[in-house]
Write a structure and sequence with these properties.
Structural class: mainly alpha
């Protein structure tokens, strides 16, 4: 039962993060929407998969590879934070009907 709850929690957090970051990315870079959506989805899904790969293969990876993965994940987390701030700022700036 516990693994199922953890999986559901992960999907909810990752799903809301993907939604807010892609929407925020579209708010920050108002350009070609399909390209921005694909880029945002790729970054978010890639981040989750990279963390999973790093977790599963930590003992088998060389120190340099681990360091590069940690750097890449940190940059993606920073970008996600900026995108979520864009989403929240846009939501806050909009007047309620």
């Amino acid at each position: 039962m516990y693994p199922i709850l953890v999986t559901i929690s992960l999907l909810l957090v990752a799903g809301s993060s993907i939604y807010m970051s892609v929407y925020g990315l579209m708010a920050v870079f108002a350009g070609n929407a399909p390209v921005i959506i694909c880029m945002g989805l790729g970054m978010e899904i890639g981040k989750v998969l990279t963390v999973a790969h790093l977790y599963r293969n930590w003992p088998n990876l060389k120190r340099l590879v681990r360091s590069l993965y940690i750097l890449i994940i940190s940059v993606l987390v920073l970008l996600t934070s900026i995108e979520v701030i864009g989403f929240l700022s846009l939501s806050h700036a909009r007047p309620k009907n």
